Each structure stands twice: as structure tokens, then as C-alpha cells.
């Protein structure tokens, strides 16, 4: 089409997707099933029903249904902050003097500050519909906890958040936003759960970890009447809900006849990357189109690029099901990288299978390079990006610079998952020149992997 | 029209206004001119040219030209974050169970977090076009300083910000965002200016004020080659640039055949309120339509509702021109209210004249009520509002509740100027129940007014 592409492509509310897309339906090699940590057998719906609410169990286990209708109530909630803009990065292209055409899907224009709200409202909605009283979860950087608080507040559902203790103390404002939305926020590890007390006894004064907060949240859910546990990444159901990101992106690009060559997303547990690439990967799996997909992870927590593909626990307390995934070992503790949302030791089983099948590439990047890219981006595109999102910015810029060398006019799409308003301590460290790049040694990773069960 | 109005009305880029509207052109009683603080005669273009760049002087003094074309470069910058959404507050209406129809124009979807960017880019652009090296300004709450930093960074212009010292210390993150954009931020009062040194000698240990920071910024601009001063509110030129808010709102409403009955904005210096109401007030002045306009100010700094309409200084150091406005006296020091952006002692001359002519109403509200309205709003509309913006929310809710009593289906439009991500210390105080409402005594106001020159 000859029509000039606007800076921001907004779909109308009528153009918004009415169903989520389930990528698993088009995968020849399905993701490996979750295993019961006791029996090491695939988790049944009945077993998962003790942890997750019923509709979400169905979504978690369904590898065949390609589309799940989005309930009207969720679509109405989406309309509060969606469709999110697909931005043509004209200013960035100009700055880089690249022939590449760069687009990003911006998910930060809501108070939770990220894409996490897309799945939070879905999980809260099904819990409410089942007549439950509340949900529990963990949060690290705080994006997921904020998103869930917003969703629960909207639906009138109790929300109990276990927040990694060092985040709880370092990010009082994140905590305060959750309180605006009426959530109950507990620093983890805490005395409120058995597993919390055990960890505190073993490691007095520990500042906590995501794996530990997961254990506490699961225990709190399964030991309280009318509660279930919800999780913001890794799970199949989360990728399903997050497919809204990719679906909207594809509709917007199709309107202008644009086909991306390269699709890039940051990857921690995989919620954003999986959501963004879903409909495009579906086309690739069905042989209808071809794309390059790039996962970008921090060099401090490189599960794809340096981990192994095997079964592992999702949590430190080993109360959760085992998942087959690229992992650094559930005992691996990443250094205090500022991209808190990317510090999970494993990776979505769906994305892990795609990576194992060679359908997805991965790169790891250092955080000082990431923050430099973030600042450069903020100055030309006017958005202060989250450190997590900035991993994707850096990789997109690197690809655009390759185009500059070769003269190729490639089209690059990346996911800008959120804003960095609550990450200014990290930006300050970057400005002061005291931010460090840490990369785990081969020995550290080997030691963590050696502790895993052989399955 | 019978078409269902969407949750968010986005204009296309082609529908965006190509000219700002100058409300003064339609005013029968023109706003009073700025006076030279020495001679007490109207400021000439030559005199103003020492402080502001030439094109902005023209805009400041022009009471007759109804439209000013928006340069292409500024329109391109606007496209990075505009058009801003006009939101139909369906969820808020449902919560209030009111027959009123509520709309708000949301200006917070940019990294500066407020509408201030609309004038910042304009002022920076004209400075750049004149070949200047940089601009100076002051900032209180930090929204204006952030906006100007973004605009200057984009254009490659130096930006020197005097930030009220207590804000500089209490809001390190605001400061840090400005540094991301390369601004030079100095806590005020400082040793870098004569007026700063004088104030420090007179009041050692003072935590500063907006009026004092203005004096320093003006001195820095007028004493440095290639610099000019810029200001984010009060001035006629600022209202001109901010008319983009009202123009976009009107185009969006007209598309759906909606005519507001009541238009509400928070008012500090008047930048948002003036911009929002401009095209609607123009219709009223021309006798084409009628609307109720309501200015909402904090009870702690009630310039409209308890001030006098007279000439006063805009700054503490008395180096700036005198403006005729509703004022509490330039020596008035409001209590430490958390709506930092509304703590200016005076009010735009344009709005002051309209208020004096009975074309505009004003109410003052207490901050604890404002924060309650803010939290209620955040829970149903999914946006954490700035304390400033929340003044308008509260007034809109009050009007909607009157409709509930009377059964009237009035249409209410209000300006949601920005987000509260940097105001969580205030939200925390509200949650802890330690936020106080302070209202100045009649004696305090009378004493400050008694010190003004008689003109």
C-alpha cells in the first residue's frame, strides 16, 4: 500500500481480537507435560485443580484447540487500556540512519506499566466466575503483582501478593501502587507459611528470591479455603492470554500490508515473547510464511543460551509441578541484575520446545549495554522503557545496524513491554557509572544443574 | 448518532489540529498586559525579547490572531504521543450509578507524565529555530522540567532546570528522569545566581519555592549568551499551545455528535484548564454555544476563590514582569500540599479576565478528598492519576452525583492531565492516615496581599 504509515497504528475497538490463539495447536512437537513432583507422572486436571481454577486448568492442558473465545467481560476490561499502539519508530530509524523499518508494540500504557495485565485480568476473571474468594501470587520486580492487584480490584476479588523481600524494600512505590488497588502485600520469605519459616530458619536474613516467593504463594493458596494460585509467566495459559499482543500486532501490520522479517522479544519466563510471536509462529509452523524470531535474555540469567533442556522445578521450595524447559537449575541464583522481570531460572515449555526444534533464536546481552540502548531510545522515541523491554530494544538496534552495513531494508518488529518509572534507581546507577555486568561462571551453572532430578 | 461510543476515542493523525487556537482573539475584554517591573508600563516586544525568544514574544502579545499554524516539526513531535485519547468513563459511571455521561481527555501517556509536553516542544522549537544554544526554566513538582528536558533532548538544545530544593530532595526519581534526557538540574535556591545567593543569605536553610526558582531561571537566562527563559504555565503563549487539548477533545466529541454540558479542569497557573476550555469558550464568547466551565483549585492555594484580581509579580525575586491576575500575593507561601503543580500564588491573565467577567466558575477542594477520589478512580478506570488531575476528578464526580439526585443526564468533560507514578509518597501518606488538610487563614492571605504594589 502506498498510504503513509502513521507513527502509531491504533486499531478500533471493533478490530480487537475476540479470541486468543493457542500456538500449541499448530506445534508438531507439543510442549512436554507438567509432572507431579511426587509421582513424576503428568499432572492430571484433578491435581492441577487444587492449585489453579478449573477453566485455567483446561487452558493449561489443551494442546489442540486453536482458539479460545475471550469472554465479553475480559474484552470490556481490555478496552480500558487496549488496543495498545503499534508504533513505527520513525525517530529511531532517523537517529540510526538505517534502511531498516522498525516497529514496536507498546504495552506500557496502563498503570501496571506492562503487558502483564493481559493475563492478570483473565486469571482473575475465571477465579471470580468459579465463585472463589481470592487469589495468591508472587512478584519480583512488581509488574505482575501490580497488574493482578488492578484486575482483582476491578472484579472485587481478594489479592494476596508475596513480594521478594529485597524488591519490597527497594521498591516501596511498587508496593504502594498495589496498596492503592487494595492488595495485601507480604515480603517473602515470611513467617506466614511453612515453607517461608523453613527457608528463614535455613537462611536467616535472606533477601528472598522469586522461586521462594512462588513456594509461599502456592502454599497460601492451597491451604486457604476459596483461594487459588495464579502466575504471570512460564505457564501455557499465560502465553495463550498474551497472544493478544501478537494478534493485535498482526492485524495492525496487515492493514498496511507490512510483513516483518524479524520479530524480537525479551525473555524471562516467556510471557511477552510467547504472546508477541504466537500468530506469526503459527504461520511459520503451518508453512504459510517465514520469519526470524529472536529471544533476548540477560547475560546474568541466560537460560536459553547457556541452560539445559530438561525437567526442573519452577520454585525453590519444590512444591510446584516440574516443567521441561531450558533451565539453569532451580537452585541457580542470578546476580542482582536490574531487569528483575527476567531473572527466572527457567523458560516457558512452549518456547523451550520451539527453541529445541530450531524455530527460534536466542541471544544474551549485558545490562550496561541494555541501559545505554534504553537511554538512547528514551531520547528519540519519548518513552522511558523498562529495563526488561530494553533488552529487546538493544537487539532490534543491533539488527537495524546490520541492515545499515548491508543496505538491506528489513522490517523489524519488537515488543516494548513496559515503562521504567519504577526503575529509576537502576537508571541512576547507570548514570553514576557504578552499574556492573555480571555473568555466571560455567561452574556455577553446572553446579546448579547437577542438583536437578534425573527424569 | 446511534453508533456506540467506544471506551477511548482516538483521532487519526490526519484529524489532528494543524493550528493552535488563540482564545484572546474572541475575548471582548482582553487580558491585561504584562507590565515592566521597573517602569510599570506595558512590556514591549523589545523588552520581552531579552527574556523569551522572538516568535514566542509575538504569540505572547497577539490578542487578535485567532489561529497560529503549528509548524510541521512540532506536529511530527506531537505524533510521538498524540493524539491523546478521549476516554468515555463507562466504568466510573457504572460505579457511581449516575445518569451523567462522563468523558476525560487523558494527557498522561507520555514519559513526562502530563500535558506539559505540548508547550515544552513548542517553546524549545522556537528557541532552536532562532539559533539559540539553550533554555532555562524552573520546576516544582517536576512535570514541566521533565517535559522540557524531553523536548530539548529531541531538538539538541541545552536545558537548565532550577528545581525547588524540597522537590529535588523528595523526588529523586523526577530528577533522574530529567538526567536521562540530559538536562542540567540545580536545586533552588542555589549559589549559581545573584538572586539565589541573596535568598540564601536572607533565609539560610530554606527549602525553596516556585517563585524563587523562577527568579533564578530568569537571571540565568538573561545573563547567559544564547539562552532564553521558558515557562510551563500562566503565560498567554502556554495557553495557546495547550489549546491542542481542547481542540482534539472537540473534534473527537463532534465525531460522535456529543456536546458537553460541563467542562472541568484543575487550575494552578491555568495551562491545562485554559487549553482544555479554549475552543469551547470561544464558541461561548461568539454566542454559538453555551457551556458551564469549572476551575478546581486546592483549598491550600485558592487564588480564584479567595484571591484578589490585581497586578502582582510572578516570582519571589520580583525580576519578572507584573501580571494582572487573581492572586494570593507573590509572598504567599502555600502549605506543603501534595498537588505541587497547583501551588502557584497567581493565575493566568486570560483565565483571570474570564473569571472576572463571570464566564468561568471556580471551586476549591481539600486534598484528603482529592486523594480519596484519586484512589476510587484508579480502581475503576485503571489509571493512577496525578494529585493535580485528581482535583478535576473530584469535581466531576461531585457534578455526576448531583445528576444522580436530579436524574439529569448531563455530559461532563474533564481534563485528566497526568499520572501519579512520582507521587506515591503522597499516596502512602494518604493510606497511613497522616495526610492533613490545611487551609490558609484570612489573615495570612490579607498580609500577603497587603505587600503588593498598588497599580
What would you say about this model in short?
Chain A has 455 residues and is of the alpha/beta class. The first copy, chain A, is 42% helix and 16% strand. The longest helix of chain A is centred in the middle third of the chain and has 20 residues, at 236-255.
Structure notes:
- 2 copies of one chain form a homodimer.
- The first copy, chain A, is of the alpha/beta class.
- The first copy, chain A, has helices at 45-48, 54-61, 72-81, 90-96, 117-129, 143-155, 165-170, 172-180, 194-202, 210-222, 236-255, 271-285, 303-306, 349-356, 367-381, 387-406, 424-432, 442-450; strands at residues 8-9, 19-21, 67-69, 86-88, 101-106, 134-139, 158-164, 184-188, 227-229, 262-266, 292-298, 308-313, 322-327, 361-365, 411-416.
- In chain A, the strands form 4 sheets. In chain A, strands 1-4-5-15-10-11-14 form a 7-stranded mixed beta sheet, sandwiched between helices. Chain A has a 4-stranded parallel beta sheet with strand order 8-7-6-9, with helices on both faces.
- In chain A, helix 3 (72-81) runs antiparallel to helix 5, helix 6 packs parallel to helix 8 (172-180) and helix 15 (367-381) packs across helix 16.
- The model of chain A has no long low-confidence stretch (mean pLDDT 94).
- Chains A and B meet through helix 3, helix 6, helix 8, helix 15 and helix 17 of A and helix 3, helix 6, helix 8, helix 15 and helix 17 of B.
Amino acid at each position: 500500500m502506498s498510504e503513509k504509515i502513521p507513527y502509531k497504528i491504533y486499531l478500533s475497538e471493533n478490530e480487537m481480537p475476540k479470541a486468543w490463539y493457542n500456538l500449541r495447536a499448530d506445534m508438531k512437537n507439543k510442549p512436554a507435560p507438567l509432572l507431579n513432583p511426587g509421582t513424576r507422572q503428568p499432572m492430571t486436571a484433578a491435581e492441577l485443580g487444587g492449585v489453579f481454577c478449573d477453566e485455567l486448568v483446561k487452558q493449561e492442558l489443551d494442546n489442540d484447540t486453536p482458539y479460545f473465545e475471550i469472554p465479553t467481560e475480559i474484552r470490556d476490561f481490555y478496552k480500558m487500556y487496549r488496543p495498545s499502539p503499534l508504533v513505527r519508530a520513525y525517530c529511531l530509524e532517523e537517529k540510526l540512519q538505517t534502511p531498516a523499518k522498525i516497529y514496536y508494540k507498546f504495552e506500557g500504557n496502563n498503570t501496571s506499566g506492562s503487558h502483564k495485565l493481559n493475563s492478570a485480568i483473565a486469571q482473575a476473571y475465571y477465579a471470580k466466575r468459579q465463585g472463589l474468594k481470592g487469589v495468591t501470587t508472587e512478584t519480583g520486580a512488581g509488574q505482575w503483582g501490580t497488574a493482578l492487584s488492578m484486575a482483582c480490584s476491578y472484579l472485587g476479588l481478594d489479592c494476596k501478593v508475596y513480594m521478594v523481600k529485597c524488591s519490597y524494600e527497594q521498591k516501596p512505590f511498587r508496593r504502594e501502587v498495589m496498596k492503592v488497588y487494595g492488595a495485601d502485600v507480604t515480603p517473602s520469605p515470611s513467617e506466614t507459611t511453612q515453607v517461608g519459616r523453613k527457608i528463614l530458619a535455613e537462611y536467616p536474613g535472606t533477601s528472598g528470591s522469586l522461586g521462594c516467593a512462588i513456594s509461599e504463594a502456592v502454599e497460601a493458596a492451597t491451604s486457604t479455603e476459596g483461594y487459588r494460585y495464579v502466575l504471570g509467566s512460564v505457564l501455557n495459559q499465560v502465553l495463550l492470554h498474551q497472544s493478544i499482543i501478537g494478534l493485535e500486532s498482526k492485524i495492525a501490520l496487515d492493514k498496511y500490508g507490512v510483513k516483518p522479517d524479524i520479530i524480537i522479544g525479551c525473555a524471562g519466563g516467556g510471557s511477552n515473547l510467547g504472546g508477541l510471536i504466537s500468530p506469526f509462529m503459527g504461520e511459520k509452523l503451518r508453512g504459510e510464511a517465514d520469519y526470524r524470531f529472536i529471544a533476548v535474555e540477560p547475560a546474568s540469567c541466560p537460560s536459553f543460551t547457556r541452560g539445559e533442556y530438561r525437567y526442573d522445578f519452577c520454585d525453590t521450595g519444590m512444591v510446584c509441578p516440574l516443567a521441561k524447559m531450558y533451565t539453569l537449575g532451580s537452585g541457580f541464583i542470578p546476580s542482582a541484575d536490574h531487569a528483575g522481570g527476567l531473572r527466572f531460572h527457567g523458560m516457558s515449555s512452549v518456547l523451550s520446545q520451539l527453541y529445541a526444534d530450531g524455530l527460534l533464536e536466542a541471544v544474551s546481552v549485558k545490562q550496561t549495554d541494555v541501559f545505554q540502548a534504553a537511554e538512547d531510545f528514551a531520547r528519540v522515541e519519548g518513552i522511558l522503557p523498562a529495563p526488561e523491554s530494553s533488552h529487546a530494544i538493544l537487539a532490534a538496534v543491533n539488527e537495524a545496524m546490520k541492515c545499515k552495513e548491508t543496505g538491506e531494508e528489513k522490517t523489524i518488529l519488537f515488543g516494548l513491554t513496559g515503562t521504567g518509572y519504577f526503575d529509576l534507581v537502576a537508571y541512576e546507577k547507570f548514570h553514576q557509572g557504578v552499574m556492573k555486568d555480571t555473568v555466571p561462571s560455567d561452574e556455577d551453572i553446572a553446579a546448579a544443574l547437577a542438583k536437578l532430578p534425573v527424569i
